[in-house]
Amino acid sequence: MSITPLQKLDLQEQVIRLKKEKNAVILAHYYQEPEIQEVADFIGDSLELAKKAAQTTADIIVFAGVHFMAETAKILNPSKKVLLPDLKAGCSLAESCPPEAFRQLKEQYPDHVVVTYINCSAEIKTLSDIVCTSSNAESIIRSIPADKPIIFAPDKNLGKYLIEKTGRKMLLWDGACIVHEAFSLDKLLELYKANPEAKIIAHPESEAHILKVANYVGSTSGMLNYVKQSPNNTFIVATEAGILHQMQKDVPQKTLIPAPAKEDNTCACSECAFMKMNTLQKLYNCLEKEDPEITLPEDIMQKALIPIERMLQLS
Ligand code: 13P
Ligand code: SF4
Hints:
Layout: H1 5-21, E1 24-29, H2 34-37, E2 42-44, H3 46-55, E3 60-64, H4 67-76, E4 81-83, H5 92-95, H6 99-108, E5 113-117, H7 122-126, E6 130-132, H8 137-142, E7 150-153, H9 156-166, E8 170-172, H10 185-194, E9 199-202, H11 208-213, E10 216-217, H12 220-229, E11 234-238, H13 243-250, E12 255-258, H14 280-289, H15 298-314
Parallel strand pairs: 1-2, 1-3, 3-4, 5-6, 5-7, 7-8, 9-10, 9-11, 11-12
Helix pairs in contact: 1-14, 3-4, 4-15, 12-13
Bound molecules: 1,3-dihydroxyacetonephosphate and iron/sulfur cluster.
């Protein structure tokens, strides 16, 4: 249910008041609704948000993102209260990798180094040697001695991209992001034909045929920086549409065109239904009630912290 502009302003004022009263910090991903991004203390990609979570002195972290991101914040801050506006805000990549099946694969390849993309559950992180995000994945893979075989999970598209970039052989888990797999190459090429001056930029969770035609491939923050620094004026953006809010703020004079999805939908772009489960109203409710809260067993947090800290040391 949508809210009126007046209700939005009122809710935003209440959120700002509550976060001051409670010494809470709001960390928001670029894919969140603009009205949430506007009240956030920090907006970033998954690596930047993990770093902010590790550094914060706030008593409460409200994570405006998806479940694995809030879980990571909790693992980095076991004594703090970490809230997620909607606990059902999951991720198709995280869901594609059930711990028991992953444990069985790992047992078949005991000599492999296990690298997991941060988009996975805390339990999967306990089975990992090192975690990575889209912005540091290439350098994390390069940090692993060349003679060590690698299991990479759960994103097969990012995995294939890393194999191509680094030349490393990796055993890939068969997971994918439903949002980034929704882009249509044919429609993208049609759009490019109509806008030949445009640069195509893509998130590495996209399929190989999309990445092949992209002028730049990188994380959400990487894409933002590319657009800011590029002398070009038009960009076709192949990632979740939420990023366009911050991008357009950064480059108001430039033209940003969302990459088209295979299926026709209302916005002719791709939206992450999980990210969009968080609303301004739910953000207010969770800050007010300090619920829903992320809780994890102590042993899971301790084990999952090790590969996350390894990543942060290398980033
Ligand atoms: P970033 O690492 O760019 O924040 O990507 C996270 C994500 O979930 C992309 O779908
Ligand atoms: Fe997960 Fe894809 Fe949504 Fe990112 S966009 S949170 S990878 S489902």
